[in-house]
Amino acid sequence: TPHTDDKTPVTLLGLGAMGTALARAWLAAGHSATVWNRTPARADALAAEGARTADSAAAAVAAGPLVVVCLLDDASVGEVLADADLAGKDVVNLTTCTPGQARTRAAWARERGARYLDGGIMAVPPMIGQPEAGGYVFYSGSCELFDRHREVLAVPAGTAYAGADPGSAALHDVALLSAMYGMFAGVTHAFALIRREDVDPAEFAGLLADWLTAMIPMVHGVAAELGVGGESEEDASSLAMQVAGTPTFLDTARQQGVSPELLTPYFELMRRCLAERTGEGAPRSMVDLLLG
Ligand code: FVH
């Protein structure tokens, strides 16, 4: 789509896998895009697709009002923006960071005269620019900035405003991604158990995906336990029963020659929770136990 003047021009700093996908989505939607990357060659393909390339991050920032940053981490954001004049700019930082880093970065940007939105991307690059893929981005910080750029931000993926606290998007992002890593830990262990056996990994993957999908609604049970009154629904899988079952899992791992390292921390938390529940005022949920 050729770019049209009524569409907000986008400056994009960082052309890794995600930054490139974002730039491509905006170009495809008819936005003009000025891009910059530390390794200039990574901009070549986008230039061929119509992006303008800038010689420096500062020049890219100067090129337009809306500056999107998608770099490796918060330290690289500080480095890249160090020499840029941010006065009057709308900065949207899609770099994964901690809530604390997001709050500090928001104050840092404000001190330089910029409006600031932090974002946490709930998508992988192939989902960008593909609305049916269900990817979205948590945004938090300036509500005014979010409203002003709502349409342009909705081009690469869906949008969800997580509040005025600039750290809120990062908190939601990291919480969801942490759950994902817990799931991947289980998946890794499960594949290790069958690795040396005559089990087709592709067939097993289908079983695994179906089983995990069936278990997903359990997250609502955790929420119910944490809610007012703290009571869960019918305890169909008691903690005592689960703790009694842990030797089966550990013995199976041993028999299969698989390290139990991905399971033992969770099993230890289950054991502690069961042991401490009996006391008056003791934490009822494993979640509260993690808070120390
Ligand atoms: N890709 C993904 O699946 C995830 C999905 C969820 C969100 N993340 C976050 O997005 C940020 C960027 O991730 P990425 O996938 O684009 O990462 P890379 O392909 O590794 O590209 C990294 C870019 O950062 C540049 N860079 C790194 N360090 C510096 C620095 N000190 N100064 C300037 N630029 C730096 C790097 O430049 P170059 O190596 O090409 O020169 C890339 O442009 C990230 O926060 C994910 O957590 C992605």
TrEMBL record:
<feature type="domain" description="6-phosphogluconate dehydrogenase NADP-binding">
    <location>
        <begin position="10"/>
        <end position="156"/>
    </location>
</feature>
<dbReference type="InterPro" id="IPR048666">
    <property type="entry name" value="RedAm-like_C"/>
</dbReference>
<dbReference type="InterPro" id="IPR006115">
    <property type="entry name" value="6PGDH_NADP-bd"/>
</dbReference>
<dbReference type="InterPro" id="IPR051265">
    <property type="entry name" value="HIBADH-related_NP60_sf"/>
</dbReference>
<dbReference type="InterPro" id="IPR036291">
    <property type="entry name" value="NAD(P)-bd_dom_sf"/>
</dbReference>
<dbReference type="Pfam" id="PF21761">
    <property type="entry name" value="RedAm-like_C"/>
</dbReference>
<protein>
    <submittedName>
        <fullName>NAD(P)-binding domain-containing protein</fullName>
    </submittedName>
</protein>
<feature type="domain" description="NADPH-dependent reductive aminase-like C-terminal">
    <location>
        <begin position="165"/>
        <end position="290"/>
    </location>
</feature>
<dbReference type="Pfam" id="PF03446">
    <property type="entry name" value="NAD_binding_2"/>
</dbReference>
<dbReference type="InterPro" id="IPR013328">
    <property type="entry name" value="6PGD_dom2"/>
</dbReference>
